[in-house]
Automatic annotation (TrEMBL):
<feature type="coiled-coil region">
    <location>
        <begin position="9"/>
        <end position="36"/>
    </location>
</feature>
<feature type="region of interest" description="Disordered">
    <location>
        <begin position="223"/>
        <end position="255"/>
    </location>
</feature>
<dbReference type="InterPro" id="IPR002164">
    <property type="entry name" value="NAP_family"/>
</dbReference>
<keyword id="KW-0175">Coiled coil</keyword>
<feature type="region of interest" description="Disordered">
    <location>
        <begin position="287"/>
        <end position="341"/>
    </location>
</feature>
<feature type="compositionally biased region" description="Acidic residues">
    <location>
        <begin position="288"/>
        <end position="316"/>
    </location>
</feature>
<dbReference type="Pfam" id="PF00956">
    <property type="entry name" value="NAP"/>
</dbReference>
<feature type="compositionally biased region" description="Basic and acidic residues">
    <location>
        <begin position="227"/>
        <end position="241"/>
    </location>
</feature>
<feature type="compositionally biased region" description="Acidic residues">
    <location>
        <begin position="242"/>
        <end position="255"/>
    </location>
</feature>
<dbReference type="GO" id="GO:0005634">
    <property type="term" value="C:nucleus"/>
</dbReference>
<comment type="similarity">
    <text>Belongs to the nucleosome assembly protein (NAP) family.</text>
</comment>
<dbReference type="InterPro" id="IPR037231">
    <property type="entry name" value="NAP-like_sf"/>
</dbReference>
<dbReference type="GO" id="GO:0006334">
    <property type="term" value="P:nucleosome assembly"/>
</dbReference>
<protein>
    <submittedName>
        <fullName>NAP family protein</fullName>
    </submittedName>
</protein>
């Protein structure tokens, strides 16, 4: 095979990029069709689990290591005692200006000692720039009760910066505008709070402050980038010559210094694409009789403690008996997976 000239090689790369874009279009259509097929099943499942105590608490108790590593003991206590409902929705599924890859995580809670909110919803938008694409999100306000903030003020600081960002309504494709945000009091306070945090463990609830693994990207910047990308690939498909894209001016600002929950997009994606559709599988894993781990689950410990308060003569309450699956004589309670060190 003869060596190709640089311009010919570049043309082949452009054609491959256009083909990759077609694959992405197909993947998005698959998401739309899968959601349409799953919708009635999710509705039926919701009706079933509404009558199963602690269903979602037990699902998150059996979370895969990628999630479980972020669920601290106090987080587990909140889930065990207060998590009542959970839902994932693709809120831009049919939005021509949005993406079916966007989704939201909605957690429902009963009254608890930590925060006032009955519902905490976190939205993740799939957006693009000229040289990046991925999930971005806005910080969510958690109304913590006095001295009960599990994130040590980081969620509040992230929310304040998010509100400033909305107020400024800056063009995120403009490097100068981003620099102005970085000069703000809110930006510096959040960066300092993260830098001086003494607790090495990140609470799962810090996920509600996640913004981006890159930087915040506005809907306007994303739509502009998507439009330019589409026009470029249409020219390639017609065999027309396209000019080389202008590279964005390198931005020296490290926006990850204000990211409260690094890797939050990966955690959220696993929850949405694995735990949500496979919730029944995770729930059933709680009752796996072949588990070798002898450690009591958080929920069993909680129920046992409640029974101790009521009297030592009463038998411990087994969560499984509440959902119609009693324990055989001598059988150990379901085990919670060991957390990695």
């Amino acid at each position: 095979m003869e060596d190709q000239k640089p311009e010919e090689l570049m043309a082949r790369f452009e054609e491959l990029a256009a083909l990759e874009h077609e694959f992405e279009d197909v993947e998005e259509e698959i998401i739309r069709k899968a959601e349409a097929l799953h919708a009635p099943l999710y509705k039926k499942r919701a009706e079933f689990v509404a009558n199963i105590p602690h269903f979602w608490s037990l699902v998150f108790e059996q979370a895969p290591p990628e999630i479980d590593n972020f669920i601290q003991p106090t987080d587990s206590k909140v889930f065990a005692e207060c998590l009542t409902t959970f839902e994932v929705s693709r809120f831009e599924l049919h939005d021509p200006n949005g993406s079916p890859r966007s989704f939201s995580l909605k957690f429902g809670f009963s009254d608890n000692e930590y925060f006032e909110d009955k519902v905490l919803e976190k939205k993740f938008w799939f957006r693009k720039t000229k040289d990046w694409q991925g999930l971005v999100s806005e910080p969510v306000k958690i109304n913590w009760k006095k001295d009960q903030d599990l994130t040590d003020g980081q969620t509040d600081a992230a929310y304040q910066l998010g509100e400033l960002r909305k107020k400024l309504a800056a063009d995120t494709s403009n490097g100068a505008a981003r620099k102005e945000e970085a000069k703000s009091k809110e930006y510096k306070q959040l960066a300092q709070k993260i830098e001086t945090a003494t607790d090495a463990s990140v609470s799962f609830f810090a996920l509600f402050s996640f913004v981006s693994g890159y930087r915040w990207v506005s809907a306007e910047e994303s739509q502009q980038a998507a439009k330019g990308e589409k026009e470029r690939f249409e020219k390639i498909q017609r065999g027309e010559k396209v000019d080389e894209e202008d590279e964005d001016e390198e931005d020296p600002q490290d926006y990850q210094e204000i990211e409260v929950f690094p890797g939050g997009d990966e955690v959220a994606t696993i929850i949405a694409e694995d735990m949500w559709p496979n919730a029944i599988k995770y729930y059933k894993a709680t009752f796996d009789e072949d588990e070798d781990d002898e450690e009591l689950s958080d929920l069993d410990v909680m129920d046992a403690s409640d029974d101790d308060d009521e009297g030592e003569d009463q038998e411990p309450v087994d969560i499984r008996t509440l959902v119609g699956k009693g324990r055989k004589t001598g059988q150990e309670p379901p085990a919670k997976k060991q957390r990695k060190a």
